Records
---
Amino acid sequence: MSEAPLFQVENLHAGIEGEEILKGVDLTINRGEIHALMGPNGSGKSTLAYIVAGHPNYEVFEGRVLYKGENVLELGADERAQLGMFLAFQYPTTIPGVSMANFLRLAVNSVKGEDDGEGGKKRIAPREFRKMLREKMQMLNIDESFATRYLNEGFSGGEKKRAEILQMAMLEPEFCIMDETDSGLDIDALRTVSEGVNKLYNDNMAMLLITHYQRLLNHIKPQFVHVMLEGQIVQSGGPELAEELEAKGYDWLKETASV
Ligand SMILES: Nc1ncnc2c1ncn2[C@@H]1O[C@H](COP(=O)(O)OP(=O)(O)O)[C@@H](O)[C@H]1O
Ligand SMILES: [Mg+2]
């Protein structure tokens, strides 16, 4: 029997407050693949990311989300992270009074700490953690002072995204969803973030990049591009589809799609 796809969405109907936003989404992503999900504002892209992350406000009416063949909709958000999923959000939260280093230590211990056999977690040794943090920051060209700053407090758009990339580097996930990682970034910040992602990416992983614009895709190259319109994926193709959307906008799809 062949191995199950890394990530699979099957006939997903989901929404918020009883209202259906996703109207039958199907998507399969294998290891070694980068997919882009594009679409106009309000089409349901973030809803898909929130459902996959296990956001409590969203409801699933029908369908499944499988990760390594397991239905993750039955798992808590922390369990999804322990399985190797990572989600970077469009609007990251601020945690005043918690330094970047402490936040990362908690995150790494919760996701990667080993079971101590008593229902708890063995913590990563502080020395080992500091070494790992230093190495990852060097690799990503992030200044050491960053580790002592409070999470997202007073961070610029670019710094917030950098914090996310550093978190991703520390957690070493196998599957990442990045929701509008490019929004609000100037061209230098966009370059830093995409360089970071490209450094972290390897053939054992897969990634779903959610983006409204084509420009992120100049820096991180997807092999597959999907377009979401009114809660459905109405078109899939290769990188040329993203270029076509950039040139023609989304309206031509609205006319051809039967939504
Ligand atoms: N908290 C909410 N309550 C009600 N409707 C919502 C809520 N959040 C999003 N929506 C609606 O869901 C639809 C999809 O939104 P979203 O998933 O954020 O789209 P996208 O990320 O593609 O811009 C939109 O029509 C939006 O108005
Ligand atoms: Mg969105």
---
Amino acid sequence: MVLMRQILNFLGRWIPLGQVDGIKIELDPWLVLMLGLILVIEGWSAFIFWIFVFGFVFIHELAHTFVARKLGYETPKIVIMPFGAAVQIVGMGSVPRHEFYIAIAGPLSNLVIAAILLVANITGSPFINKLAALNLGLALFNLLPIYPMDGGRILRGATRMISPHLSAYEATRRILIFSRLLMVIGLVACLLFCSFGTLIWTLLIAAILWVVGAAELNSLKNQDEQEQ
Ligand SMILES: [Zn+2]
């Protein structure tokens, strides 16, 4: 019972990993559990591969953070979760041009890493090729024009740059309709062509994106109403 309570306590608390240039880095305990299970079930090579995955995801977040700081935003925290990572940017989305630059920095960092790995892999190591493909995959996945992923944020920034009269709420509302249409099409395609495991992951990610997108739209609506 005590052990069970300790495990539940552990899983409910973010693990502080330290600070980089004043930015707190925190780890979701569920990620530790997931990596532990990968090590036990699939062994060392899978475990090391996943450490690389989260390492590249972390670099991706650092790229967002770097550009956000250059543009004068506060970035108090980066959190790393089993579904990816996120940087907290205070006031993100207030200036469309800034949102565009900050959002595109993450996928661009993965494209640059993929290019460097491919060029540097003179021995043709399959592991390095796999890491390059992983970065290419991370970049392309994040560039999907689905809000609140980077691609959706790039689209929102660009839309508001082209149509400055659109409020953040209205632009987000329109992009969410488009995002949800894409997600439904993707899910139907996955239902037809994906394996059961991939389908479950896709459903889970789509559900998270759906809920987070709705929550962000709701908070923008409240902001709009307060300003009026
Ligand atoms: Zn990103």
---
Amino acid sequence: MNKLIWNTPEYKAIHQKLFWQRGRASDNQCTDCDDNAQDWSHRHDTDALDLINYDPRCKSCHRKYDYSKYGNHRAKLTDDQVREIRQKYSSGSTRKELSKEYGIAPSTAANVALGIKYKNVA
Ligand SMILES: [Zn+2]
């Protein structure tokens, strides 16, 4: 599966292509509600370089959809896992690697590693 990173040339290129081939997201109705779409939303676990795998969504549904990817994994981390994450982060693991390993969002991994979340774990 291809992972696209914000602001990479690949990411910009795919959005340029989407615009050429499928038009503005805002010319479509949101896939999940009756509002006008605002974004092209990548369908999770599909090839991010294939334009077929993008659905028009409004901002709020897009956010919900992307959030749902991690929804099943929002189980709490154990204290030991929190310590491990911090340990690994300080020895060079990236938040992306940690996110995969622990099934949490990269932003959560960063917040845990930096002590913004799970402040109570020493
Ligand atoms: Zn919507």
---
Amino acid sequence: MDDAQPTDQTTSDNTGKKKGAYVDPATCIGCTLCTQVCPNVYEMQDDGKSKAVNPTNDTEEKIQESIEACPVDAISWKDVE
Ligand code: SF4
């Protein structure tokens, strides 16, 4: 039987839950900073807000940097499957 791949993301460890980035759209002011720090994680949406389209698609260090770069603290860590 083929192993079903849950997403297009690779899993870096076997601890179960993995941390990824989450953008609160109500807080985001669309400054695009996070997309500059982690272009593989965030993408600007048609509504002018950023979205973490690939929440785990960079190193923890870079994602943390993007969280700290956000001027309105719209980004946080969340557990992803
Ligand atoms: S850095 Fe923060 S305010 Fe700026 S686009 Fe990203 S989430 Fe939105």
